């Protein structure tokens, strides 16, 4: 077992309090958008030494090894033969805490093939790996699952053209009118693609229409005539953070999602989405590939997004857990890279099984992991990496999540 310290990401859309409070740390006023628990090259967790092994460095962390370094020393021992044969000598998943208080970018994650092609293209073009205008940071796909710890608002996937037209109807600008016409073109996916592309890239002389549409959205909410109060509220929230952004109108083409605590959603490669607000646990393939088109100050590449987006109208993919045994619920995603289990411990100890490499993160209560004679306290916010073959028992009172490989 290895105790982990997360790699923190201080993006401006993050909460100043949610993640520090869960980790049991003092908030310093800076935004903490994400906490990464994993071994990704662009943000590996640190392995916390035992007290008698602590560094004499100025902040105690300068000489701590990264989880990526530890795994690289003996991947077959730590990951297991099966995982190495399937995924290579690297941890195939990444576990995160994510805490938006303002909308994230409108984005899509690539498939394996798209990521490989995009990465090679940028490498050959000489785009530095860490450049702000780089789109493909690695060659992996990035399907992901979000498990809500609080009420979590998001957008995911396209509405049907009929419903999207109903939402847009009455906003009455030339830009909107042309978008509705495109929604009615051909079969449903063709109409969605045409409308989405037009909203993002078309009629640049009509940018002022976005502000007019926002005023009309606010007016219909105020008058009680909104065809979707949920969609209009999200659009106005985006408008406050990104005034004039085409993503405001694009959001009306998408499905709004509200996850209650304990609910989960899967986002496959190609699915357009944006997180709006809340606190959740994410588990994903170990990748940092994000193709953005709107609602961000980061690098945008709407054309690249349109090349890989899945435009088929479909509802969000909500996942129901399988009750594996008493106190254990498992959310299975339709990918081979990861699964997420939620363990509730009360009167009886619960074994953390599953095989292969796993990361456990305490989200509630005060727990202990017991592996032979080794006992590791696991208060809320603490995380531990478990190597293949390590199946500790957890006891105490609380809940934890366990990310692993199916």
From TrEMBL:
GO molecular function: mannose-6-phosphate isomerase activity; zinc ion binding
Top-tier EC class: isomerase
EC number: 5.3.1.8
Pfam families, sorted: PMI_typeI_cat
Details of cofactor binding: Binds 1 zinc ion per subunit.
GO BP term (any one): GDP-mannose biosynthetic process
Keyword Amino-acid biosynthesis: no
Catalytic activity: D-mannose 6-phosphate = D-fructose 6-phosphate
Cofactor needs: Zn(2+)
Domain Phosphomannose isomerase type I catalytic: 1-159
Keyword annotations from UniProtKB, A to Z: Isomerase, Metal-binding, Zinc
Family listed: Belongs to the mannose-6-phosphate isomerase type 1 family.
UniProt-recorded name of the protein: mannose-6-phosphate isomerase
Top-level taxonomy: Bacteria, Bacillati, Actinomycetota, Actinomycetes, Micrococcales
Name of the coding gene: manA
């Amino acid at each position: 077992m290895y105790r982990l310290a997360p790699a923190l990401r201080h993006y401006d859309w993050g909460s100043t309090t949610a993640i520090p409070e869960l980790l049991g740390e003092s908030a310093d006023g800076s935004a903490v958008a994400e906490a990464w628990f994993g071994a990704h090259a662009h943000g590996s967790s640190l392995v916390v030494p035992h007290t008698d092994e602590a560094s004499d460095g100025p902040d105690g962390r300068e000489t701590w090894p990264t989880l990526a370094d530890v795994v690289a020393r003996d991947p077959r021992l730590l990951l297991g033969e099966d995982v190495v044969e399937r995924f290579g000598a690297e941890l195939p998943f990444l576990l995160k805490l994510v805490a938006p208080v303002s909308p994230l970018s409108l984005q899509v994650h690539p498939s394996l093939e798209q990521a490989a092609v995009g990465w090679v293209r940028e490498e050959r073009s000489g785009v530095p790996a860490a450049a702000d205008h780089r789109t493909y940071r690695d060659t992996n796909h990035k399907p992901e699952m979000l498990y809500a710890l609080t009420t979590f608002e998001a957008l995911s996937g396209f509405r049907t053209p009929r419903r999207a037209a109903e939402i847009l109807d009455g906003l009455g600008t030339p830009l909107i009118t042309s978008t509705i016409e495109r929604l009615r073109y051909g079969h449903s996916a063709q109409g969605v693609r045409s409308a989405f592309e037009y909203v993002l890239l078309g009629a640049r002389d009509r940018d002022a229409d976005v502000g007019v549409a926002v005023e009309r959205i606010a007016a219909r909410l105020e008058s009680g005539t909104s065809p979707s109060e949920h969609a209009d509220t999200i659009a106005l929230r985006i408008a406050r953070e990104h005034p004039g952004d085409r993503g405001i109108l694009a959001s009306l083409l998408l499905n709004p999602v509200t996850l209650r605590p304990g609910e989960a959603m899967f986002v496959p490669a190609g699915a357009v989405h944006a997180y709006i607000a809340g606190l959740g646990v994410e588990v994903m393939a170990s990748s940092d590939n994000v193709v953005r088109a709107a609602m961000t100050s980061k690098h945008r590449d709407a054309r690249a997004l349109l090349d890989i987006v899945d435009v088929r109208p479909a509802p969000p993919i909500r996942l129901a857990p399988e009750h594996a045994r008493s106190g254990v619920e498992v959310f299975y995603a339709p990918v081979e890279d990861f699964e997420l289990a939620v363990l509730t411990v009360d009167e009886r100890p619960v074994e953390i099984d599953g095989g292969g490499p796993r990361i456990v993160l305490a989200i509630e209560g005060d727990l202990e992991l017991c592996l032979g004679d080794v006992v590791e306290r696991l208060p809320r916010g603490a995380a531990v990496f478990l190597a293949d073959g390590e199946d500790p028992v957890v006891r105490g009172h609380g809940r934890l999540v366990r990310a692993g490989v199916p």
